[in-house]
From TrEMBL:
Keywords: DNA-binding, Transcription, Transcription regulation. PROSITE patterns: HTH_GNTR. GO terms for molecular function: DNA binding; DNA-binding transcription factor activity. Residues 239-264 are annotated as: Disordered. The lineage of its organism: Bacteria, Pseudomonadati, Pseudomonadota, Betaproteobacteria, Burkholderiales. InterPro entries: GntR_C, TF_FadR/GntR_C, Tscrpt_reg_HTH_GntR, WH-like_DNA-bd_sf, WH_DNA-bd_sf. This is GntR family transcriptional regulator. Coiled coil: none annotated. Residues 18-85 form the HTH gntR-type domain. It comes from Diaphorobacter ruginosibacter.
Amino acid sequence: MATKKKPKAEHVPQTRDESSVERLYVELRERAMRYDFRPGARINEQALGREFGISRPPLREALNRLVAEGFLDFVMNKGFFRKAISVEELFNLYQVRIALERRAVYLAVTHASDAEIESLADYWKEVMDNSANMSSAEHLLTDEEFHRRLTALSHNRELCQFLEQVTRRIHVARHIDLEQSDWNARAFDAHARLVELIRARKTAEALEALSEHIDLSLKRAVQITKEMVAKFFLQDQGWEASQPPTPSTAPALKMKPPSLARTE
């Protein structure tokens, strides 16, 4: 009696888990923002693969996204490296931030509805009312959220996305700034005044207030970045005292900070 052959099971291709790749990307981005990856250091892909239990293709996809966003460098035949700290780069990022936010404020004055502006005002009032119970990290997150919501008033999604990338890349310097300065009172006043000027549709005054606010952050961020360069350089010297630092292992101050005069 002939036996029936069992039909072969159809091959179902494995689909890539988009959510797991996104979670990996977010975790690696957070580490890069905190400088858990030392400036100039090579990223150990094998160690990360073992830690997250993930294969090389999705890991490389996440790392390549960080290259595109300016957190990492990729060197052919060598791999991925955490970008060195650069005062010049930070200064340039702040110039981009000023340009983007000035355009966002202009568009907010001309396009945002009264209800949208009131929503921003209500958000910041709630932050001020609860500020006494916030840590410096929480203050930074609320400040970033204020600027995120401010930019959203422009009704320009592309502008919002570009500004989000800049915000992430200057995150560490701003966090240190909040811990070292009397940021709260100045930021509260500056944000509240900016909202009032937008509410009154006073374009020129709102642009001036925004520029002054960000210029103050720029000057402090440049000083903090110089201190970070020195900190990591001295740590490298302590670990490798017998060897002079090389461009691939020790971040260098690439140039003197440019003039801090405001760029319109």
